[in-house]
């Protein structure tokens, strides 16, 4: 039984290229296990209003190299805790990409796009499709390796390993 | 078909020949987490049903990112790490023992040909040792600690060949900043980098660590320096690529005319010849980190600052990468020279580089730092600006209160 919604319809918050993990959650807030502290400061050096306007289920959209920099898993955790249901980008930095899947935050790489701030998006995670309802345009996401789909289906790596004990390709 | 260094190391671990693009589950030779990633690792380890780490000799925890603890919240996270290490019979490197990457190399947790996984993005530093080392987040690391394995995609490799010898007064940091500027912060995403050629062959282990360290600033999964010229305290056989190995891209640079480089705010790949920024007023100079906190870095800074004082409008912070580096710098006199010149010595660790404590810049201030990142807010204040340069550039700039080419102090 999947713990991730495979169909998502929500509003897009759109940012640019190279959003590093210091911008997603500054280093000074990372030393905590309290997820609400992380969510209170999410993206604050990029957009101090984000935390006030983000609604449960909203979609974060970015350009290239999203999540570059530190290996801090607090970055996807902060986004997830703030209500973000999925992150879409042209492409991702590799550690962020793995971390997001590992904590059960879906991430989709769709290459060059023209999604505008406030656009209504419909996401079909199962088939890797992103539809911009505001612009009536559909983007195909890069297919995830099977092991990542399996991890995501369990809601993250903790549940995956709890169930399976080890990895299978 | 020929293999790259990464393909060879991974093949040796999985028991059959593998090539770029293949997914593998590989044994891991060592792993570690810091106090930024360790507490979440422990939480995930327990949540996934972990009872005992796969091998306590091959797992380590390091308290370096906020050491000593600046507040009670972090003090309690440190306690959680100490308790876990004791319970598991694994080593915990205490406050001041050093930065994770430095102590892993000094204590031989990683050796040539190994696969090492660290919960810190600068784990590729061990590519200096000709190892395949990559950074992961906390949950991935918890899984490694539990299973002794990791799943990975064998990466494509970018070959970076540099011919020519660096001029006197130009260092490995200048070389890697130059390369980050050329390859860009996303130029090697998901890929491995192999560094080879004359410019790397004469480099010390410390300088090779500076090079491999900043592979992560190009998005690379790992960055491995060709073993030619590598000298270690123990016997080893280096892994070299086959002549017919396949590379996704090859860069070829002649670096014999390279001048000192700086990375300007606010991205590590915003790299320029130092002459473009000479004269920029600075308030704060910092030498330390996993990138440039080693003995040779303090030695060159001491050579420049010997008998001089830092500028009255500048403060200077120095953080040795480990206690061992600190003791060596005390023995050879470099530390005394730097402190007499006006530098402030802080505990070995990540300190100001991660913006948690020990030297946050004020609004509008300009920092010249020997670290590896200058993202907005990196040092704890989004209203400050960070320039990255070699330790020599930091030391010379500290004397003059502005960014200067250190060459005149060295030749």
From TrEMBL, chain A:
It is an enzyme of class 4 (lyase). GO terms for molecular function: 3-isopropylmalate dehydratase activity. It comes from the Bacteria. GO terms for biological process: L-leucine biosynthetic process. It catalyses: (2R,3S)-3-isopropylmalate = (2S)-2-isopropylmalate. Residues 54-109 form the Aconitase A/isopropylmalate dehydratase small subunit swivel domain. It holds the Pfam family Aconitase_C. Pathway: Amino-acid biosynthesis; L-leucine biosynthesis; L-leucine from 3-methyl-2-oxobutanoate: step 2/4. Gene3D superfamilies: Aconitase, domain 4. Keywords: Amino-acid biosynthesis, Branched-chain amino acid biosynthesis, Leucine biosynthesis, Lyase. Its EC number is 4.2.1.33. Belongs to the LeuD family. LeuD type 2 subfamily. Catalyzes the isomerization between 2-isopropylmalate and 3-isopropylmalate, via the formation of 2-isopropylmaleate. Heterodimer of LeuC and LeuD. This is 3-isopropylmalate dehydratase small subunit. It comes from Maribacter vaceletii.
From TrEMBL, chain B:
PROSITE patterns: ACONITASE_2. CDD domains: IPMI. It catalyses: (2R,3S)-3-isopropylmalate = (2S)-2-isopropylmalate. GO terms for molecular function: 3-isopropylmalate dehydratase activity; 4 iron, 4 sulfur cluster binding; metal ion binding. Heterodimer of LeuC and LeuD. [4Fe-4S] cluster binds at residues 290, 350, 353. InterPro entries: Acnase/IPM_dHydase_lsu_aba_1/3, Acoase/IPM_deHydtase_lsu_aba, Aconitase_4Fe-4S_BS, Aconitase_4Fe-4S_dom, HAcnase/IPMdehydase_lsu_prok, Homoacnase/IPMdehydase_lsu, IPM_dehydratase_rel_enz, IPMI_cat. The lineage of its organism: Bacteria, Pseudomonadati, Bacteroidota, Flavobacteriia, Flavobacteriales. Transmembrane segments: none annotated. Its cofactor is [4Fe-4S] cluster. Keywords: 4Fe-4S, Amino-acid biosynthesis, Branched-chain amino acid biosynthesis, Iron, Iron-sulfur, Leucine biosynthesis, Lyase, Metal-binding. One of its GO terms (biological process) is L-leucine biosynthetic process. Catalyzes the isomerization between 2-isopropylmalate and 3-isopropylmalate, via the formation of 2-isopropylmaleate. Binds 1 [4Fe-4S] cluster per subunit. Its EC number is 4.2.1.33. It comes from the Bacteria. Belongs to the aconitase/IPM isomerase family. LeuC type 2 subfamily. This is 3-isopropylmalate dehydratase large subunit. Pathway: Amino-acid biosynthesis; L-leucine biosynthesis; L-leucine from 3-methyl-2-oxobutanoate: step 2/4. Residues 7-276, 277-401 form the Aconitase/3-isopropylmalate dehydratase large subunit alpha/beta/alpha domain.
């Amino acid at each position: 039984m999947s713990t991730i919604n495979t169909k998502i319809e929500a509003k897009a918050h759109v940012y640019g290229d190279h959003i590093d993990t210091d911008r997603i959650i500054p280093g000074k807030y990372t030393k905590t296990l309290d997820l609400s502290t992380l969510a209170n400061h999410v993206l604050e050096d990029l957009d101090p209003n984000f935390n006030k306007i983000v609604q449960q289920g909203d979609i974060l959209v970015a350009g290239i190299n999203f999540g570059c920099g530190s290996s801090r898993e607090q970055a996807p955790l902060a986004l997830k805790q703030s209500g973000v249901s999925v992150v879409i980008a042209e492409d991702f930095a590799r550690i962020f990409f793995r971390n997001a899947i590992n904590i059960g935050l879906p991430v989709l790489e769709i290459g060059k796009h023209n999604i505008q701030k406030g656009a209504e998006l419909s996401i079909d995670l199962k088939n890797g499709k992103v539809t911009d309802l505001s612009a009536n345009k559909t983007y195909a996401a890069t297919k995830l390796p099977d092991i990542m789909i399996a991890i995501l289906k369990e809601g993250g790596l903790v549940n995956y390993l709890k169930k399976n004990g080890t990895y299978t390709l | 078909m020929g293999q790259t260094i990464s393909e060879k190391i991974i093949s040796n671990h999985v028991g059959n020949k593998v090539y770029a693009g293949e997914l593998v589950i590989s044994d891991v030779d060592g792993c570690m987490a810091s106090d930024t990633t360790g507490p979440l690792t422990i939480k995930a380890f327990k949540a996934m049903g972990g009872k005992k780490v796969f091998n306590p000799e091959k797992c380590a925890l390091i308290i370096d990112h906020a050491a000593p603890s600046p507040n009670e919240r972090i003090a309690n996270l440190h306690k959680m790490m100490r308790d876990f290490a004791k319970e598991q019979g694994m080593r915990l490197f205490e406050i001041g023992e050093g930065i994770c990457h430095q102590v892993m190399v000094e204590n031989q947790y990683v050796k040539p040909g190994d696969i090492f996984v660290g919960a810190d993005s600068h784990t590729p530093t061990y590519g200096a040792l000709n190892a395949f080392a990559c950074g992961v987040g906390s949950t991935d690391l918890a899984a490694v600690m539990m299973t002794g394995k990791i799943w990975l995609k064998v990466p494509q490799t970018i070959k970076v060949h540099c011919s020519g010898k660096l001029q006197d007064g130009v260092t490995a940091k200048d070389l890697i900043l130059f390369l980050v500027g050329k390859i860009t912060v996303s130029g090697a995403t998901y890929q491995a980098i192999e560094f080879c050629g004359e410019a790397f062959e004469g480099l010390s282990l410390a300088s090779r660590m500076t090079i491999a360290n900043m592979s992560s600033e190009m998005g690379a999964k790992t960055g491995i320096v060709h073993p030619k010229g590598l000298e270690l305290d123990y016997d080893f056989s280096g892994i070299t690529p086959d002549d017919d190995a396949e590379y996704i891209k090859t860069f070829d640079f002649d670096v014999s005319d390279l001048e000192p480089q700086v990375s300007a705010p606010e991205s590590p790949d915003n790299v320029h010849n130092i002459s473009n920024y000479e004269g920029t007023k600075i308030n704060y100079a910092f030498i330390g980190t996993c990138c440039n906190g080693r003995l040779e870095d303090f030695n060159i800074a001491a050579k420049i600052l010997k008998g001089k004082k830092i500028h009255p409008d500048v403060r200077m912070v120095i953080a040795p990468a480990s206690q061992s580096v600190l003791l060596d710098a005390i023995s050879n006199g470099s530390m005394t020279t730097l402190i007499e010149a006006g530098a402030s010595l802080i505990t070995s660790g990540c300190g100001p580089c991660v913006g948690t404590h020990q030297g946050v810049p004020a609004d509008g201030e300009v920092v010249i730092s020997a670290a590896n990142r200058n993202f907005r807010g990196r040092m704890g204040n989004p209203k400050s600006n960070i320039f990255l340069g070699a330790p020599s550039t930091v030391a010379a700039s500290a004397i003059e209160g502005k960014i200067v080419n250190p060459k005149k102090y060295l030749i």
